[in-house]
From TrEMBL, chains A, B:
The keyword Protease applies. Pfam families: M20_dimer, Peptidase_M20. SUPFAM superfamilies: Zn-dependent exopeptidases. It comes from the Bacteria. This is Peptidase M20. GO terms for biological process: proteolysis. InterPro entries: Cyt/Met_Dipeptidase, Peptidase_M20, Peptidase_M20_dimer. Keywords: Hydrolase, Metal-binding, Protease. Transmembrane segments: none annotated. Residues 205-363 form the Peptidase M20 dimerisation domain. PANTHER family: BETA-ALA-HIS DIPEPTIDASE (PTHR43270), SUCCINYL-DIAMINOPIMELATE DESUCCINYLASE (PTHR43270:SF12).
Length: 469, 469
């Protein structure tokens, strides 16, 4: 069997841990805030730093890719062929840009001056996503050292983008432009988390997303509600009636055809979700909500991970200033988003929303729908061979049963899945307390090293094929 | 009988017409724009001008009343006792302030430099409301001249406020403070219009108004719709569901108790409405609407004049900027107004709205209701003696059958009705084409003189009692 002996991996990691953390700290000192135009040079410095480090790690090919015709933030691509005949090709995805951070936001220390305290490394990007990208560098070296190989057991590719915290505006085009260089058998996304420090998990899917704005037009101008109210259609009323009609009394989405093709949760999956130590009250506090509410017949976790939704992100119309204004407004606006699950098609959903809207509005209300974005859902079946490899590698690193989660959100992973036509797997070691996008972001050093160890085991397992040996 | 001979009235009016119009033009040159703090001195000048003119007309008592402890715009009060034992007391209401106007808004001539052209007097305030207030000055003089009296047949009082175009913020307090001076048997409001130039009408009522803002609070902050959407209550969704629940499928207001006590239209009233030469398409154009829509079983005129309504004046929540933002918003807001008809009580409606709102919101959505204003409806029965006097006086002036209308709006007339406890009647000669609040406001000189003539006939008729002689 081609597995690396676990003890050799651990020994190598232990030996290089200090240098690895020093390097990571150096990277974290670069404030690669993609949303801040004033930090563009830092984002570029971050890409260059990573490119140099990947060269040093041993990747024979390392390139900095421009995006948006040079107007976007650079991505880093690296490639290390296996040399083995028939070795699978794996693409690791992550990002080197970070969220904004300032001391006055509530940071106890400078967000760009990493500090280790009580087994945690505090810095902006420690978990999201520099720490999780970086564990692959020591991971692949540990894999080589423990197996005596000079190249990985898989054809290893890395794509580390620089605009994820900015909505990845240029990412789909980047992936399409370099689809041949990015070709692979599976994608490993290292930009997610696991359930909890004592509960290692693998994410098996993300929801898709369809977003739209519906503009409703009634009278050509705001008109007096005393003179005309009660006798003409009111676009704010009709906007509200649309929203109310989105869900039935069981809070199921009531748009005809919405659930067509939905891959329903199996009993096995529901049991696996139910095994997780879920604390509903604690979840509710995390949501800053004062209650839970959703589709009848499903648990909270099922609702956010595995059920499609319709949500109002914004609504507006008429007078919103202080006091009152007795008008029938001339227009109103809705921003809706639909989270999709496997089996739902973004085009079909857009068409269903179009038809449903048109059918519900009365005469005298003109409308326009603008779809502002569409991301397809992704889901890896629990019995997929590559998923089994990730679970085995993680199980060896953690010495614990690995469970399964999903992500309620939607992400650029789906672009990789769609353009490259391959399954997307998730390998993340961050935990909910890591404070993504919040002050005092940190990564648990113990978990970070488990990430290194998982990566060190993974390439051999994937190369060994479906049975893992 | 005490009627003034119609020909004597006409002769007197004809004789004084030129001087009357010169005086009105002088008043119209004062830009008494109450909404513009920079015009406060002009509003005061307008009050002083009117007070002097009423003195000159013959009112023995004329006073300028301060409002809002001197911070508001002044009102003018005038009183002319009849001297006849048992003469009824009538209070005429109008306002001397005007809407803003500027040449660049589309005026063909200076809005504050009156111009007579093709039998029309163009100026801001020509119809709303200086022209209609002013016809009472010549009216009472014609009444005296034609009857040989030295004082009117009724105890005549005038109250001309200076903040009507600004929402009459100090008017209820003013009326309450001077309730003893304002005591009367009926109020004549000269601040409305009639159906059309060739269709003289008397307005018999205005709708009441209850306004509120409902604030809905969900999560303590905006939260990610991917991570939490579909499993927590969304205040924008709940705001919309409230609005949708305001009406049933027949567009009747669905708040329990809302129609309790409503004085239904009689068959006779519906027939009178139906006799009016109503052009639905033209009305729709005036409304700038592209359709009519309202409570099933009622015509457009019935809907706006005689049926209570629930209208959304404003709605807002979540993200309303460009593009999308995938959040569950933390709050949403509704501004609702309810038009009321006779028999509905503003307090009871507020309570019904409170209870209905509280009963419909799910756990996790906190709400606050703020009522921002309440005006009671007013309605004069068709067989009310004072209304019959107005109809007779107008019929003599116009030489035509006088029909009945109502006003869909709500106004300070209701404050007079409520505080003074008397019926409110409406005597207005403005027509829809007069352009209230719009550029090129005008009054038809022919109609203006009919207003003078109506006023000249009215006092004698009212004094003569129920049978008009």
């Amino acid at each position: 069997m081609s597995h690396t002996p676990d003890s050799a991996v651990r020994a190598y990691i232990e030996q290089h841990r200090a240098a690895f953390l020093d390097d990571l700290a150096e990277w974290l000192r670069i404030p690669s805030v993609s949303a801040d135009p004033g930090r563009a040079a830092d984002v570029r410095r971050s890409a260059d730093w990573l490119a140099a480090k990947l060269k040093e790690t041993g990747f024979p090919t390392v390139e900095v890719w421009e995006t948006g015709d040079g107007a976007g933030a650079p991505a880093v691509f690296a490639e290390w062929p296996s040399g083995d005949e028939g070795a699978p090709t794996v693409l690791v995805y992550g990002h080197h840009d970070v969220q904004p951070a300032a001391r006055e936001d509530g940071w106890h220390t400078d967000p760009f001056e990493p500090v280790v305290k009580d087994g945690r490394l505090y810095a902006r990007g420690a978990a999201d996503d520099k720490g999780q990208v970086f564990f692959h560098t020591l991971g692949v070296r540990a894999h080589l050292a423990a197996t005596g190989r000079t190249a990985p057991a898989v054809n290893l590719k890395l794509l580390v983008e620089g605009e994820e915290e900015f909505g990845s505006p240029n990412f789909p085009a980047l992936v399409r432009a370099h689809a041949d260089r990015l070709a692979c058998d599976s994608v490993i996304v290292s930009d997610t988390g696991m359930w909890a420090e004592d509960t290692p998990t693998v994410c098996t899917g993300m929801r898709g997303l369809v977003e739209c704005q519906i503009d409703l037009y009634g009278p050509d101008q705001d008109i007096h509600s005393g003179s005309f109210g009660g006798a003409v259609p009111n676009p704010a009323t009709e906007a509200a009636r649309l929203v109310a009609a989105l869900h039935d009394e069981d809070r199921r989405v009531a748009i005809p055809g919405f659930y067509d093709g939905v891959v329903e949760l199996t009993d096995a999956e529901r049991e696996l979700f139910a095994e997780l130590p879920f604390d509903e009250e604690r979840w509710q506090r995390t949501a800053h909500s004062h209650a839970t509410l959703g589709e009848a017949g499903f648990t909270t976790l099922e609702r956010v991970w595995a059920r499609p939704t319709a949500e109002v992100n914004g609504i507006g119309g008429g007078y919103q200033g202080p006091g009152g204004k007795t008008i029938v407004p001339s227009s109103a606006m809705l921003k809706l988003s639909f989270r999709l699950v496997a089996g739902q098609d973004t085009d079909r959903i857009q068409q269903a929303v179009r038809e449903w809207t048109a059918a519900r509005l009365p005469a005298g209300i003109r409308h326009e729908i603008t779809f502002t974005g569409a991301t397809r859902p992704c889901l890896t079946p629990l019995d997929h061979p590559a998923l089994r490899s990730v679970v085995r590698a993680m199980g060896r690193a953690f010495g614990q049963k690995v469970r399964f989660t999903r992500e309620g959100g939607s992400g650029p992973a789906a672009d990789l899945q769609d353009v490259l036509g391959v399954p997307v797997l998730f390998l993340g070691i961050s935990v909910p307390s890591d404070g993504w996008h919040a002050p005092n972001e940190k990564v648990e050093l113990g978990l970070l090293m488990k990430g290194v160890e998982t990566a060190a085991h993974l390439w051999g397992d994937l190369a060994a094929g479906p049975d893992g040996h």
